[in-house]
Amino acid sequence: MARSKSDISNSALRIFLQEVGKFYDKERGFEPFGPKKKQKFELLIFFNNECCFCGAEISEKTLSQDHLIPMNKAALGLHAWGNVEPCCRDCNNEKQQKDWL
Ligand SMILES: [Zn+2]
After folding, report:
1. Residue 26 CB contacts under 8 Å (≥ 6 apart), including other chains
2. CA angle 29-64-78, nearest 5°?
3. 34-67 burial code (b ≥16 CB/10 A, e <16)
4. 5: number of Cβ within 10 Å
5. What is the pLDDT of residue 100?
6. What is the pLDDT of residue 1?
7. Running along the chain, 101 residues long, what does each successive block of 10 average in pLDDT?
8. pLDDT at 18
9. Per-residue pLDDT, 53
10. Which residues contact 29 (CB under 8 A, 6 or more apart)?
11. DSSP code, position 45
């Protein structure tokens, strides 16, 4: 539940970036990236079941999805194929909203 104007603003921005991401995926001929289990599986296969930061082995149960370009008002990363990457929870917690470099 939103606690402040900033929370509402961030939630609205994330919804907007998800919707733009769907449009971007459709325009490129991809099924929009969503919460589907099949897409998580494809992501893991593409990245050889490894965390994209530390290389630790991850599975569907330990998968954490990170946005290479963060979904925030400064970076405007999309929830779309090519910007979602698999990582372990430790790396995702460490990266959070920071730039991937
Ligand atoms: Zn990791």
Report:
1. 32
2. 40
3. eeeeebbeebbeebebebbbeeeebeeeebbebb
4. 8
5. 74
6. 54
7. 72 93 96 86 94 94 91 91 94 83 77
8. 94
9. 93
10. none
11. H
Compute the distance from residue 58 Cα to the ligand 1 centre, in Å. 9
CB 5, CB 67: distance < 8 Å: no
CA separation for the pair 29, 46 (Å, rounded): 18
Measure 5 CA to ligand 1 centroid, in angstroms.
Answer: 33
CA nearest to 77, candidates 29, 17, 28, 11: 17
> What pLDDT does 8 receive?
74
Location of structure tokens 């992501």: 43
Give residue 28 CA to ligand 1 midpoint distance, Å: 29
- The CA 42 to ligand 1 mean position distance, Å, reads 18
Joined tokens for residue 21? 């991401």
